[in-house]
């Protein structure tokens, strides 16, 4: 009939039982009534329209799996609303259960033509599971969202610095709707401008898709995560720390959990959109933050094997004073005065004034405006050391670091991702989703761990 095909007879008991068994539907979703068709008696299924639709979807899926239909086809139930039979039960009459035939036909897709003010917004088709939302494109002029099934269509419009908008559009078969949305300014991040988040963490842009926290994650930041999630404790340092000191005794997994939590919170507050997230930097991104140019498509192990012998402050050793001030919080004269800190594990004649950790930002930043990329705490990155390694990577050295080779800007410290210590912390980045993946090939000649 037309572009479709209709079954000649109502769905019978045998077909229904195949569907019910395969889809594990309860027995009482249908009843069976005997009918006389041209002198032949057979039993047909009587059911609700909703269950009939499920049967039709199952029928189409079977046809697609068998290769006789494509995903551009649909099946609709044709309910026999005038059906009358002495065999209908009182329940069937009360619940309006009826026999039905199936019509298989090409889907008459609809489309939406969308513009936004301002333009350049990202558009996503929404699903009940947000992780399965589909990216459509940007509204640079008119954006056509095509191949839409008739019915309700939910989509979200996202633009940095503006309130996200979600819309529901109901399309009839083959319908085209034009829609113009005027977006409203809000306090969300704009990736190419310096930004401060809800915890007071400050970020500087390092490109259109990537921002770095200017500080290591502080005790006050991590304590907010601990309180919100009813965790056992926040800072567990065995020495005195203030709220602006870097959090310590955190594993890579702890740091990643903090990033997931903060992303969720700030999306709910509409500070972030679904296309931005907090996470740990990759090893390569950490080098970018430190203004260190390294090869992008290899592992940290490979980069480590060719590291340059220079420091964040230059090539001079021991660390110099710059404008009369120490350059970083390292293992120094002050640290050697602490109980259990031997003088031979400090940098001779270097004094930064801090025995253990220091408040973030206590020393001069690099030219990108980022602090403590050398010293204070070793910082977790997201990579493993090499394709063959299960060890994580930390960068930058810490308040305990005194050896020259461990303070080169390109030095890596390898530890199990679950490991915690009083010298290990982390820094977060804010980036577009997903990050550019680092998938180095298998490498010959690099060690499993550093």
> pLDDT below 50 for ≥5 consecutive residues: which ranges?
none
Termini, distance in Å? 71 Å
Coarse morphology:
elongated
Q: What fraction, in percent, of the residue positions are helical?
A: 10-25%
Structural class: alpha+beta
CATH C-level class of the largest domain is Alpha Beta
Overall mean pLDDT score? 93
Strands in their spatial order, largest beta sheet: 13-14-15-21-16
Which architecture name of the largest domain does CATH use?
Answer: Alpha-Beta Complex
CATH topology type of the largest domain = paralog of FGE (formylglycine-generating enzyme)
Beta-strand proportion:
25-35%
Number of helices, counting only DSSP H or I runs of 4 residues or more: 8
CATH superfamily of the largest domain: paralog of FGE (formylglycine-generating enzyme)
User: What is the H-and-E element order?
Assistant: EHEEHEHEEEEEEEEEEEHHEHHHEEEEE
- When the domains are counted, the total is 3
Quick structural gist:
The protein has 450 residues and is α+β, with helices and mostly antiparallel strands. It has 8 helices and 21 strands.
What does this molecule look like?
This protein is of the alpha+beta class and 450 residues long. It has three domains: 5-105, no CATH class; 110-182, Immunoglobulin-like, CATH 2.60.40.10; 195-432, paralog of FGE (formylglycine-generating enzyme) (Alpha-Beta Complex). It is built from eight helices and 21 strands. The chain has a five-stranded antiparallel β-sheet. Strands 8-7-10-11 form a four-stranded antiparallel β-sheet, with no helix packed on it. A four-stranded mixed β-sheet has the order 19-18-17-20. Strand 13 and strand 14 (202-205) form a beta hairpin. The chain is elongated, with a radius of gyration of 32 Å. The model has no long low-confidence stretch (mean pLDDT 93).
């Amino acid at each position: 009939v037309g572009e479709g095909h209709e079954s000649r007879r109502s769905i019978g008991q045998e077909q229904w039982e195949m569907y019910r068994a395969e889809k594990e539907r309860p027995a009482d979703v249908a009843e069976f009534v005997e009918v006389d068709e041209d002198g032949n008696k057979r039993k047909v299924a009587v059911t609700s329209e909703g269950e009939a639709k499920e049967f039709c979807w199952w029928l189409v899926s079977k046809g697609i799996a068998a290769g006789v239909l494509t995903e551009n086809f649909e099946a609709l139930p044709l309910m026999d609303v005038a059906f009358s039979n002495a065999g209908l039960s009182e329940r069937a009459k009360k619940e309006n259960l009826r026999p039905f035939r199936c019509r298989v036909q090409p889907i008459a897709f609809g489309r939406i033509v969308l513009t936004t003010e301002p333009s350049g917004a990202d558009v996503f088709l929404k699903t009940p599971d947000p992780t399965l939302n589909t990216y459509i494109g940007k509204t640079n002029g008119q954006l056509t969202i095509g191949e839409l099934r008739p019915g309700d269509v939910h989509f979200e419009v996202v633009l940095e610095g503006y309130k996200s908008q979600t819309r529901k559009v109901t399309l009839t078969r083959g319908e085209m709707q034009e829609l113009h949305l005027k977006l409203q300014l809000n306090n969300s991040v704009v990736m190419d401008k310096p930004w401060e988040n809800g915890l007071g963490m400050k970020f500087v842009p390092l490109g259109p898709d990537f921002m770095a926290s200017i500080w290591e994650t502080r005790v006050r930041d991590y304590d907010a995560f601990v309180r919100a999630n009813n965790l056992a404790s926040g800072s567990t340092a065995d020495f005195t720390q203030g709220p602006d000191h870097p959090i310590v005794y955190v594993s890579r997994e702890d740091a990643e959990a903090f990033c997931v939590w903060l992303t969720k919170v700030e999306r709910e507050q509409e500070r972030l959109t679904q296309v931005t997230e907090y996470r740990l930097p990759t090893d390569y991104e950490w080098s970018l933050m430190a203004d260190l140019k390294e090869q992008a498509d290899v592992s940290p192990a490979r980069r480590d094997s060719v590291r340059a012998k220079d420091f964040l402050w230059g090539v001079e050793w021991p660390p110099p004073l710059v404008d009369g001030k120490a350059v970083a919080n390292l293992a120094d004269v002050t640290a050697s005065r602490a109980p259990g800190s031997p003088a031979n594990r400090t940098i001779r004649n270097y004094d930064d004034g801090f025995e253990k950790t220091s408040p973030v930002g206590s020393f001069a930043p690099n030219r990108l405006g980022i602090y403590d990329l050398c010293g204070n705490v070793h910082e977790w990155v997201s990579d493993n050391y090499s394709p063959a390694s299960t060890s994580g990577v930390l960068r930058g050295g810490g308040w305990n670091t005194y050896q020259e080779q461990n303070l080169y800007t390109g030095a890596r410290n390898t530890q199990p991702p679950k490991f915690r210590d009083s010298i290990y912390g982390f820094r977060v980045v804010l980036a577009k989703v997903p990050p550019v993946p680092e998938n180095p090939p298998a490498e010959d000649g690099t060690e499993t761990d550093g």
